[in-house]
């Protein structure tokens, strides 16, 4: 597509992924390509890892009912969103790819796509997390970009899939080095209720979505402690009790936000500080994660139930790893290699609680 | 006290005010002056508007039980915090005054204090809100400063009185132009669990605490709408429902925070942008107010009950005015005079919902 202005290109979209968030995004994209058919091909392919659903193939049910009955039940995806079980077929002919798969599947998915993606294809990663290997941290946009030889942007924000699927008001941030491409992505995703801001800070947008999970674990620990604390405060009357511990939560969020920002500026020079304190991918996403979600929930249970994160993952997450705790470990090793763990007391505290038996209620001695 | 270094001065503290927050602060200050008796006189006077409590005078009960049985029951204030019903006596001999009264009592209190305060006395205002008169906005630190002829700092942050009284972890910000004086105040208030940051930005610290109430009203409106909305979404299964609307709340907080910052920079040149996006008096206080508190609660009821704010104030606030709605009106008139109301769409939206019958669910058409 070189030589042609991005704004004039007609993009054909494929989604690589079809979970809860992928399906919510497919619905938005499906609506927008119909309304903006001069800019986009009106059919959207959605790669869907084939599985059985009540005796039928999931992709068949999706294409029959126009509903992802398994991962986003009750929501009409539109008849132009077509589920496709074959990855190569799903991306065939597409010149804009939306990556929205769990991070543990990236390597394998990229392997299957290698050599099949035309040069000049645009990519955007909606995958949260970071890749830590051999003492280096990479954002997934970079990983995809290198593996497939394409430019890859990032989209991240305070987005709850089910809210977006219900057209409840929310915002997100797109990080993309080429501002014209960023605007094209914005055109693809934005609706009146789903506001998209664009930024050139791909790294900041991506790191926000990864680092916040560590802070959410700390917020969950605080939330877990409040119950114990209130129980101990038998002397206080109902009137003077404040079970919410909002002030403590807000303090953790603030401290965590500044640590996220500091970390990114130290190790990813060129990151924009405002991405953290002003964008949806920063402060707003952090707020949602510290108030709800699995990191917060499992961390609270860690305090109230006194079990290990390993056991709680098995019990509460069906064996999946808890992202915030995993990221805390990766960050800790990354920082330790550089002798910088003490400069990030909240991140380090979460690591030590999860892996070294440090007691959650000693938090104020650590941060 | 001129000529002597602030750090070497011995401060004698009086609190002007003794409500829920005033009592929580009196307890902290009482503990600290004992531990730091080389810097502070160990007796703390607390002016207390006299009232009847179960047949006795409230000040007598406080001084007898060392507990503010009416406004902070169940919490030991310490025997060196002395309630005093006579304002002039309470401040006599004090060279450091903590103002912590509802804003509607400032004028009258200052009137009673005029001429009684020695030059060089240090003041700090813990009063939330702004004073809007004749098309001008003043922070209360300034009002106190001008009326009494003393320097007046400001303390504001994500502080819930009952949490602070329980030594739950939280943070606050002191704004004070003289950094040595700021550090002395910090020494007076800070504990391991109550973290105090200092800043020279008196105005930013004060505005944060006032403007956040308007954003909290918007957050409450969103919270009120979610119930209605979920009820309408009967088709969605339980699994896909997300009653929290966290993404919408986070979006409102983010947009509100930036509007607060923009407003302050436009009309109070010299305000530090970081105060809003990085300090407890900014982002953290905003978060607590948007998740709890009366502005949020009454605004949610405005949507669910369909009554006017005036009626809800009578029902829910015992006739008191709702600060966020009041501030929205004051800001609107301030902005309108300058033709700038459209530059602050969230503030203006809250005003229009409260006073002009604009429907809360049209929010995305306004902001």
UniProtKB/TrEMBL annotation, chains A, B:
<dbReference type="GO" id="GO:0042803">
    <property type="term" value="F:protein homodimerization activity"/>
</dbReference>
<dbReference type="InterPro" id="IPR006109">
    <property type="entry name" value="G3P_DH_NAD-dep_C"/>
</dbReference>
<dbReference type="Pfam" id="PF01210">
    <property type="entry name" value="NAD_Gly3P_dh_N"/>
</dbReference>
<feature type="binding site">
    <location>
        <position position="323"/>
    </location>
    <ligand>
        <name>NAD(+)</name>
    </ligand>
</feature>
<feature type="binding site">
    <location>
        <position position="105"/>
    </location>
    <ligand>
        <name>NAD(+)</name>
    </ligand>
</feature>
<feature type="domain" description="Glycerol-3-phosphate dehydrogenase NAD-dependent N-terminal">
    <location>
        <begin position="12"/>
        <end position="180"/>
    </location>
</feature>
<feature type="binding site">
    <location>
        <position position="294"/>
    </location>
    <ligand>
        <name>NAD(+)</name>
    </ligand>
</feature>
<protein>
    <recommendedName>
        <fullName>Glycerol-3-phosphate dehydrogenase [NAD(+)]</fullName>
        <ecNumber>1.1.1.8</ecNumber>
    </recommendedName>
</protein>
<dbReference type="InterPro" id="IPR017751">
    <property type="entry name" value="G3P_DH_NAD-dep_euk"/>
</dbReference>
<dbReference type="GO" id="GO:0005975">
    <property type="term" value="P:carbohydrate metabolic process"/>
</dbReference>
<feature type="binding site">
    <location>
        <position position="161"/>
    </location>
    <ligand>
        <name>NAD(+)</name>
    </ligand>
</feature>
<feature type="domain" description="Glycerol-3-phosphate dehydrogenase NAD-dependent C-terminal">
    <location>
        <begin position="201"/>
        <end position="363"/>
    </location>
</feature>
<dbReference type="GO" id="GO:0141152">
    <property type="term" value="F:glycerol-3-phosphate dehydrogenase (NAD+) activity"/>
</dbReference>
<feature type="binding site">
    <location>
        <begin position="17"/>
        <end position="22"/>
    </location>
    <ligand>
        <name>NAD(+)</name>
    </ligand>
</feature>
<dbReference type="InterPro" id="IPR006168">
    <property type="entry name" value="G3P_DH_NAD-dep"/>
</dbReference>
<dbReference type="GO" id="GO:0051287">
    <property type="term" value="F:NAD binding"/>
</dbReference>
<keyword id="KW-0560">Oxidoreductase</keyword>
<dbReference type="InterPro" id="IPR013328">
    <property type="entry name" value="6PGD_dom2"/>
</dbReference>
<dbReference type="Pfam" id="PF07479">
    <property type="entry name" value="NAD_Gly3P_dh_C"/>
</dbReference>
<dbReference type="InterPro" id="IPR036291">
    <property type="entry name" value="NAD(P)-bd_dom_sf"/>
</dbReference>
<feature type="active site" description="Proton acceptor">
    <location>
        <position position="212"/>
    </location>
</feature>
<dbReference type="GO" id="GO:0005634">
    <property type="term" value="C:nucleus"/>
</dbReference>
<feature type="binding site">
    <location>
        <begin position="294"/>
        <end position="295"/>
    </location>
    <ligand>
        <name>substrate</name>
    </ligand>
</feature>
<dbReference type="InterPro" id="IPR008927">
    <property type="entry name" value="6-PGluconate_DH-like_C_sf"/>
</dbReference>
<dbReference type="InterPro" id="IPR011128">
    <property type="entry name" value="G3P_DH_NAD-dep_N"/>
</dbReference>
<dbReference type="GO" id="GO:0005829">
    <property type="term" value="C:cytosol"/>
</dbReference>
<comment type="similarity">
    <text>Belongs to the NAD-dependent glycerol-3-phosphate dehydrogenase family.</text>
</comment>
<feature type="binding site">
    <location>
        <position position="128"/>
    </location>
    <ligand>
        <name>substrate</name>
    </ligand>
</feature>
<keyword id="KW-0520">NAD</keyword>
<feature type="binding site">
    <location>
        <position position="321"/>
    </location>
    <ligand>
        <name>NAD(+)</name>
    </ligand>
</feature>
<dbReference type="GO" id="GO:0046168">
    <property type="term" value="P:glycerol-3-phosphate catabolic process"/>
</dbReference>
């Amino acid at each position: 597509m070189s030589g042609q202005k991005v704004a004039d290109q007609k993009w054909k979209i494929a989604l690589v992924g079809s979970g809860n968030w992928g399906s919510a995004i497919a619905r938005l994209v499906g609506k927008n390509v119909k309304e903006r058919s001069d800019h986009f091909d009106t059919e959207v392919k959605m790669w869907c890892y084939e599985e059985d659903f009540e005796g039928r193939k999931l992709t068949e049910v999706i294409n029959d009912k126009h509903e992802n009955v398994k991962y986003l039940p009750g929501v009409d995806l539109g008849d132009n969103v077509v589920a496709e079980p074959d990855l190569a077929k799903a991306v065939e002919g597409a010149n804009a790819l939306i990556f929205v798969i769990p991070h543990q599947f990236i390597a394998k998915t990229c392997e299957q796509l290698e050599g099949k993606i035309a040069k000049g294809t645009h990519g955007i990663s909606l995958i949260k997390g970071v890749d830590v290997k051999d003492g280096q941290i990479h954002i997934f946009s970079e990983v995809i970009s290198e593996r497939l030889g394409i430019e890859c942007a990032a989209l991240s924000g305070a987005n709850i899939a089910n809210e977006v699927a219900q057209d409840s008001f929310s915002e997100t941030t797109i990080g993309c080095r080429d501002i014209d491409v960023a605007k094209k992505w914005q055109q693809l995703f934005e609706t009146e209720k789903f506001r998209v801001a664009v930024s050139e800070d791909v790294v900041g947008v991506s790191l926000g979505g990864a680092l916040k999970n560590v802070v959410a674990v700390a917020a969950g620990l605080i939330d877990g402690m409040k119950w114990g604390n209130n129980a101990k405060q038998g002397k206080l009357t109902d009137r003077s009790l404040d079970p919410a511990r909002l002030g403590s939560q807000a303090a953790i969020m603030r401290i965590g936000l500044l640590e996220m920002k500091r970390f990114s500026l130290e190790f990813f020079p060129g990151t924009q500080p405002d991405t953290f304190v002003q964008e949806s991918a920063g402060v707003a996403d952090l707020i949602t994660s510290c108030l709800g979600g699995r990191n917060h929930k499992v961390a609270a249970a860690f305090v109230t139930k006194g079990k290990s994160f390993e056991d709680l993952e098995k019990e509460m997450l069906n064996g999946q790893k808890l992202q915030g705790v995993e990221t805390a470990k990766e960050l800790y090793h990354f920082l330790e290699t550089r002798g910088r763990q003490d400069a990030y007391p909240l991140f380090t505290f979460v690591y030590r609680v999860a892996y070294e038996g440090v007691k959650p209620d000693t938090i104020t001695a650590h941060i």
